[in-house]
Amino acid sequence: MDTQFEFEKNHKQASGIESGTNFNKADIGKLNEIKDFAMENKELNMVSEGKVFLHDLLKLTGAEISITSIPANTKAPFLHKHKNNEEIYIVLSGKGTMHIDAQDIEVKEGSIVRISPDAKRSVDNNSNEELIVMCIQTKAGSLGGFTLEDAEIV
Ligand code: ZN
Questions:
Q1: Strand, helix or coil at 133?
Q2: 87 CA to middle of ligand 1, Å?
Q3: Measured in angstroms, how far is the CA atom of residue 152 from the centroid of ligand 1?
Q4: What pTM value is reported for the model?
Q5: Domain that holds residue 112
Q6: Following CA atoms 59, 93, 78, 40 in sequence, which dihedral angle do they give, to the nearest 10 degrees?
Q7: What percent of the chain lies above the pLDDT cut of 90?
Q8: Number of structural domains in the chain
Q9: Distance 135 CA to ligand 1 centre (A)
Q10: How far is the CA of 50 from the centre of ligand 1 (A)?
Q11: Which residues have C-beta within 8 Å of that of residue 119, sequence separation ≥ 6?
């Protein structure tokens, strides 16, 4: 199955795309413009509105990062789980309810939630304002050294 998502052409596009020998950069604008993006999977004939995926845009090699705008009073259409990837959800704006297996937890701007691959999860926006969530997907258990162990002053 082709899992590639592209920016749907009738919606907002990333701009300011630059790359160098050791970096990739793009601009996606302000938080309140996330709702104007849509990602399209042509093979599945699927368009996901209010979402930006960064893996392909920035040529990420160890993570997928998405930013999603969930409109006011919107229930997630399905639960999902992962085969190998842990997810870290960071609420950037608004508030909502995350369903994680049999538990419901309230989240709001500034909430950060780590979820193991096997957990069934979804996010509902049961408020009257937009909810914006960043999700970082990375292979569970893949991180070796980090921060002071991995960085070196040059
Ligand atoms: Zn996921």
A1: strand
A2: 6
A3: 32
A4: 0.93
A5: 6-139
A6: -40
A7: 94
A8: 1
A9: 8
A10: 16
A11: 81, 100, 101
